[in-house]
Amino acid sequence: MSTWFVDRKPVDTIPIDDRAAQYGDGLFETIAIRGGTPRFWTLHLDRLQQGCERLGIDAPAAETLQEALAAAIIACDIDTDFAVARITISAGTGPRGYRRPTDAQTSFRIGIFESRAMPATAYRDGVETRLCRTRLAIQTQLAGIKTINRLEQVLACAEWNDASIVEGLMLDTEDRLICGTMSNVFVTSGKTIATPAITRCGVAGIMRRHVLTLLENARIACDVRDIAATELQAADEVFLTNSQFGVLPVTRCAGQAWSVGSMTRQVMSLAAGNGVPECAP
Description:
Layout: E1 2-6, E2 9-11, H1 19-23, E3 26-34, E4 37-38, H2 41-55, H3 62-75, E5 82-90, E6 107-114, H4 120-125, E7 127-131, H5 151-157, E8 165-171, E9 176-180, E10 184-189, E11 192-196, H6 206-217, E12 222-225, E13 227-228, H7 229-234, E14 237-242, E15 246-253, E16 256-257, H8 262-272
Parallel strand pairs: 7-8, 7-15, 11-12
Antiparallel strand pairs: 1-2, 1-6, 3-4, 3-5, 5-6, 8-9, 9-13, 10-11, 10-14, 14-15, 15-16
């Protein structure tokens, strides 16, 4: 169940000539709502503003977005103690054709969705993943931001129906590990943590950014660099990050098995003490 709002009014349609619907010309953020409050709002806002700048569209004012989101949380019929909000920004409406009209005006809509917490066993025992056949195309202009076009992720998620597999990990077209379909990935080797550089493709997640800051503050080494697919197989531990579930240990992928190790537990503990209590080991 979800409820959508435009200009603080409930809606169930979008204009047929909306560029987000016609061409995927826009961005979105998926925000965890906990206790009726958006989690890590400033990080989401920052990525949204960077994305608008990268696409060359006008970003709505920060105050406007924040006030509209707060109003949507209050007005919806959904339990917002544990929910999800989506802000979709469109480049506006216009005639057929890829070129944006010069008078196009950015618009946005907000959806509030029901959500359920990840089971405690997932945090305790870890989750299974798979390696997707679908590859991420290299496009440096879009790397890091969350554009509306998610067809690569749609195709990747269509590769499996096994409910025991929580996530699919994705490589780029040059066999580099990049991210999951809905998450970022970290690997450990000894006492060192590494995560793929999101410079050619993929989405730089909010929780990834939060964890990188926590690691830096805790003086735990973390390399942000290119990671070959073979390094995944050689890793001592693997974990995922996502704005909704926080930090999750990975125990299996592509025939490899890992235990939930001390480095992953340490990262989960840091996250649990800094805004993501569901990660408590």
